[in-house]
Amino acid sequence: MAEKKNKAEELLYAPKNGHERMDAAAEQACTDYCAGYKAFLDAGKTERECVAETVAQAERAGFRPYRRGEVLKPGDKIYRVNRGKGVFLAVIGRQGLDAGIQIGGAHIDSPRLDLKPMPLYEDSELAYLKTHYYGGIRKYQWVAVPLELHGVVALKGGEIVEVCIGGSVDDPQFVIEDLLPHLGAEQSKKPLGQAIPAETLNILVGSQPLADVEKDAVKLRVLTLLHERYGICEEDLISAELCAVPAYRAVDIGLDRSMIGAYGQDDRVCAYAALRALLDTEAPERTAVCLLVDKEEIGSVGVSGMQSAAFDTFMDDLCAAQGVERRVCYERSLCLSADVTAAYDPNFAEAYEKRNSARLNYGVGLCKYTGARGKSEASDASAEVVARVRRMLDENGVLWQMAELGKVDYGGGGTIAQYMANRNIDTLDAGVPVLAMHAPFETVSKLDCYMTYRAMKALYEEQ
Ligand code: MN
Ligand code: MN
User: How far apart are CA 154 and CA 243, in angstroms?
Assistant: First the structure.
């Protein structure tokens, strides 16, 4: 009997719930970490706000903007902002950049409703803003949900007007109406994906007419209020980036407070882990780099996405200061593409393959590959890279699990991993399992958030 048990212990992989493997001190550290994470979520609901909050935290931790040509020494802490929408941060290592760098990379854009360039109109004495959704949303989830308006209006003179309506206690909020069930018989017969067409995602922003005006009096009153608050006219909305985001604050979920519910946790949950770990890193062996990028939700495209040369330019500058070729640096580097994965949801068990799904409270989820239709669009990390990361996490007591995103051929998803790997950088996906990913309100486990932070710390400090 005893021999059988030993054989089982020796040969079987038997993961356990992380709460059974963490002591009281670790549980407390996890709770403290998550308090900071929730504050980070509330401070940044767009990539621009996330960058501003990141820079504020980094400067408090001794980071300063990097000036091209500046010579750096071990322990120096620097950052560069890319067009207000992305940020690269580094702590210079004891070894030169020719030894490679340790990269924690996450994205800070999240699915949302962007305003169209000509958004404002009046219909039936109600004023609306037209939207164009950004990223993969399930449109039916965005109706009858309180919304805030965040973003910028760029004026012709070069001035940038920052807009944030709905975030403070006294602010008004906005909503997209749904059809009442009493009249929903026909709508209810439609497939979920067709019940709410994209062109009906129109945000209600006013109902009171401006006095003594004959045409579009409600629209004109909304414009008057915008002009009073921000000094802008309708034409200025053409050069604006305004986003409607859910008006939810980050909260604890569950009687045991073991989870967090909030908007935009994909991927700010990993962005905060990668950032916080770097802020807590002092003079690592190899240079530690945290990159927070934009546009992952629409394919990592554009000048602020991971396919942009902005990161290579940043690394060129750092490498030039040490007389190192960037290609030499890259080929010895390791990147954890810190992005969320799907958590097994027993309520929708049919969409998951249970043996290979991430579970809440089992730690940071490692994905050897993502993608769809036979691993298309996946970087598919090598067995050697997975082994290196297993070792690194185990040596640092980080709880981790392997994860696949749902059943094969049920869908899929991508991350920035492939664009890092294309640069000749060994890359593995690692992140927090999420319930209801891309919904206006997503849920994660605090333990998994904390373990993702610990994984990033282990990465930056790998010997
Ligand atoms: Mn993501
Ligand atoms: Mn996503």
Answer: 14
